[in-house]
Automatic annotation (TrEMBL):
Protein name: Response regulator
Domain Response regulatory: start-end pairs: 2-116
PROSITE patterns xref list: OMPR_PHOB, RESPONSE_REGULATORY
Membrane-spanning ranges: none
Gene Ontology terms describing biological process: regulation of DNA-templated transcription
SUPFAM superfamilies: CheY-like (SSF52172)
Gene Ontology cellular component terms for the protein in this record: cytosol; protein-DNA complex
UniProt DNA-binding region: 125-223
Family matches, as InterPro entries: CheY-like_superfamily, OmpR/PhoB-type_DNA-bd, Sig_transdc_resp-reg_receiver, WalR-like, WH-like_DNA-bd_sf
Organism: Alteromonas genovensis
Alphabetical keyword list: DNA-binding, Phosphoprotein, Transcription, Transcription regulation, Two-component regulatory system
């Protein structure tokens, strides 16, 4: 990926940039909103990591200006603010995702890889396939070969989220936001219950485990899944 990081805290910026470089990605950095906007409009990018509290322009202003200029590069907002109102404002302004500080680098990486992958897939993709498993987004069906797997609505959404991020870790907070639309952790076992049900149905059809648990982080469908 080619990533633009707009962050005015040198320690945070260094941590993220070094992590991205270590994963083989290219990282362009900017320390204020004005230079961040210039970099975003003068480079071909896969994703922008944009801090909210910035000198010159704040992150919301940069995002507004980008969307007004018809720049649709996926944007992940970073903020020390955890209020739902700030998340809603960011998403309504045009952000694709929102992450509250402090965060684990692994979660940041999973989120931006998901955003970059989503952009490459395109919005017209109606079938997602992994080996013999087919997710039909139009007819809301899941097939293992010719055999249909009966999934409830949340189970379908959960599997869709995992498949869209195949080979990448999907964190619990990502699942809560994308499947249940929770922008906070309600401290329930709702994910565990649905993952368990999904495994019983999908793994039974495959006769091998398809969904991996990444301890302390989330879940993943392996790249090698067939």
């Amino acid at each position: 990926m080619r990533v633009l990081l707009v962050e005015d805290d040198p320690k945070v910026a260094s941590h993220i940039a070094n992590g991205l470089l270590g994963e083989g990605h290219e990282c362009i950095t900017a320390g204020d909103g004005a230079s961040g906007y210039r970099e975003a409009t003068s480079n071909e990018l896969d994703v922008v990591i944009l801090d909210v509290m910035l000198p010159e322009y704040d992150g919301f202003t940069v995002l507004e200006k980008l969307r007004e200029a018809d720049n649709n590069t996926p944007v992940l907002l970073l903020s020390a603010k955890s209020q739902v109102e700030d998340k809603v404002r960011g998403l309504r302004t045009g952000a694709n995702d929102y992450l509250t500080k402090p965060f684990a680098f692994e979660e940041l990486l999973a989120r931006i890889e998901g955003l970059a992958g989503r952009g490459k897939e395109g919005d017209d993709k109606t079938l997602i396939k992994v080996g013999d498993l087919t997710l039909d987004l139009v007819n809301r069906k899941v097939l293992c070969g010719e055999q249909e797997i009966d999934l409830q609505s949340k189970e379908f959404q959960l599997l869709e989220c995992l498949l869209r991020h195949k080979g990448k870790v999907v964190t619990r907070s990502m699942l809560l936001e994308q499947v249940w639309n929770y922008h906070f952790d309600p401290q329930t076992n709702v994910i565990d219950v649905h993952i368990s049900r999904l495994r019983q149905k999908v793994d039974k059809a495959f006769n091998v485990p398809l969904i991996e648990t990444v301890r302390g982080t989330g879940y993943r469908i392996a790249d090698s899944a067939t």
